[in-house]
Amino acid sequence: MGIMENAVVLLCKRGDVSCDVLLERTLSFQSLMTKLFAKWKDLSEGSFSLSYSFAGHPKCLLESDEDLCVLYALTLSSRTECVDVAVKDLVDTSTVSTVVDVCSSSGDVGCDQLVLLDSVGTRVDLLPSFSGTNNSKVLKSAGKRYGELSSNLMECFDNWIKKERSLPITLLFDKIRLKIMEQMSARRSASMKWKGVICPIMEKKFKGLFNVSKTWAISRSSDDLYEVRCDPSVSVNISSRSCSCGEWQINSFPCAHAFCALKRGGKNLNDYVDHYYSVDAFHHTYSKSINPIPIIWKDVSVGSDVNVLLPPLCNKRPPGRPQTERIPSTGVKSRKITCGRCGQVGRHNRARCKEPLQH
Length: 359
Hints:
Blueprint: E1 8-14, E2 17-23, H1 29-39, E3 48-54, E4 57-61, H2 65-78, E5 82-89, E6 96-102, E7 113-118, E8 123-125, H3 153-160, H4 169-191, H5 200-213, E9 217-220, E10 225-229, E11 234-237, E12 242-243, H6 247-251, H7 256-264, H8 279-285, E13 337-338, E14 345-346
Parallel strand pairs: 1-5
Antiparallel strand pairs: 1-2, 3-4, 3-5, 6-7, 7-8, 9-10, 10-11, 11-12, 13-14
């Protein structure tokens, strides 16, 4: 069968195997994916990427119908009849055959858990067990997040050195060294007074979980499997340290549902908290210290008349008003306060209140 007019052949290459697909104006991205799935049975959605190269357009990705339209327009403008498309695996296909979303009722694998099936059909859980022990079967790429938000890390650090930012670079580094040295020493001294097993801020969180979950009903299915009837109801597996809400697996800290199940089973809450939150881990983090750098051995002949490279002067201010408030990260909960002037609940107090008063 001959090639139709204004049609291009996509030569999809994966390793030493190729697959020819006819690119027409009406070809959709989903149709292209279906043809690739029929050629390579071990491919699954999200496990590979498609890319091509043109003169002046290196390594262009194919991810949507719009990308196919762009590729079709490029072939028409350059009068190209064949385009090489690289099919690149995002996972190691020699050990992993497919990625599936498993919802098992046996209790071994909880709902909404992402697992891998290796070449012999063995399940490998992508979510760590968070048991605190050395588990070599857990994939290193899964990692642990502990529920930390870090999108504004540089903004917080910039505000921390607000007074030192205008200094020359050498003095700035020395001031940062002193601030970190004092901070580590202060945290190390404060942690020596802690008597509990986990850090005080996490003990306070346990109290908050009790207030949230004290009205929930709990049903036991087995020694380690519970159903917490709330809105919505969830399943908690104590042995695998998992909850169908997913919060326990991500934060490595029992969620409110797991808190109920642990209390019902008479478990020690501290035994089901990751070592990351323990006082011992905090002590180990700040056990080292930054050594002082005395200036007694420095060259004292260097005076203040030495030329110092200063930042360039900026005579023109950028347009618009400078931002005065931080941009909150997703998931950050702001504390509401009651204004003593207008009595409204919000983020302003008496000094910053601009609400009109009604007499």
